[in-house]
Amino acid sequence: MMGTRRRTILAILAFLMLMGIAVYFRLWAIHYNISSDDTNLLRQQFDIANREAMDESAEWRLRYDVEVDRTKKCLQELQVFQESSQKGDDASGINHKLVTLQKENAVLLKRLETLKRELEEERFKCSSRYIN
Fold this sequence. Notes:
Blueprint lengths: L1 H86 L3 H41 L1
Keywords: Coiled coil
């Protein structure tokens, strides 16, 4: 009587252990599938964010290049007018143009500095997105 009861308890215990192991493996399989899906989703999100950052960086670089070209052009015109004013040809008109170009140059230089700061701020924002 005692032996039969002990065997029954051992059989029930063995059955419960097998069921526990089966449940454990099933939960492990579910977790593995979810983890691999998360990895793919994160990779896709990173790719999208990377493309957006590249587009934005290209846009800011284009703005910066345009402002640099405008500043270079203004400086070249300023040099031409300075050279011609040294020759003494129509000094009052040239001096007026020179003053005007110097003012435009100062405005463009300020604009260039503003764009440089904005570019750095955008780069910082982009890099902080990747960190988070």
